[in-house]
Amino acid sequence: MKYFFLFLTLATMLGCNKDNSDFHYWGHAFAKFNGTGWKAKTRTFVNKPYEQGIDIKLSRLNKQGYNLDGLFLFKIPWVVGKHKLSLTDVRDVDSLSGAFFSTLIDGDILGDTYQLAEGDIENYIEVTKIEGDKIWVEFQLTLAIERYGQEPKYPDTIRITEGRANGKLE
């Protein structure tokens, strides 16, 4: 049930969003997605409602500006350094940073959802630079399927390596 509300929150954030002036992306992200290049646009904002660090939304868009899939990194400390990503909820009042990945069908229907894989895996985000309201990060994580959508797009496990992104706090 806990993750159901997370799905609804993220579906609202990731789904049915077209890249327009009301929905501004400032930065870019690049990573190896199961060994293949993956790039996205980024938004960076203060974690809501408890202001537990920042959230970084990485959205891969099609040519029309609609979301295909997205990685959501949340509760990241606004501090240069390496921070462990843990299995937590964006709304939990704790000091744990987390991540969530989802696919979208036709730009607005929530597809597959993934959560951080646990075990002997190094899931992290490293804040490498902060200048005013701008941030640069590197990240690595492994995600496991939590829920299949109508049209599964990816395998049960996703490995994201060599990730890097920049953003500007909104």
Write up what this structure looks like.
The chain is mainly beta and 170 residues long. The chain has one helix and ten strands. It has one helix at residues 2-14, and strands at residues 27-33, 36-46, 54-61, 67-76, 81-84, 98-105, 109-116, 124-131, 134-147, 157-168. Strands 1-2-3-4-6-7-9-10 form an eight-stranded antiparallel β-barrel. The longest helix is centred in the first third of the chain and has 13 residues, at 2-14. The termini are far apart. The model is unreliable at 1-22 (pLDDT under 50).
Features of the shown structure:
170 residues; 53% strand; 1 helix; eight-stranded antiparallel beta barrel; mainly beta
By secondary-structure content and strand pairing, the structural class works out as: mainly beta
CA radius of gyration: 15 Å
Question: What would the principal axes of the Cα set say about the shape?
Answer: globular
In total, the number of strands is: 10
What are the segments in which pLDDT stays under 50 over at least 5 consecutive residues? 1-22
Strand content: over 45%
Strand arrangement in the largest pleated sheet: 1-2-3-4-6-7-9-10
Head-to-tail CA distance between termini: 30 Å
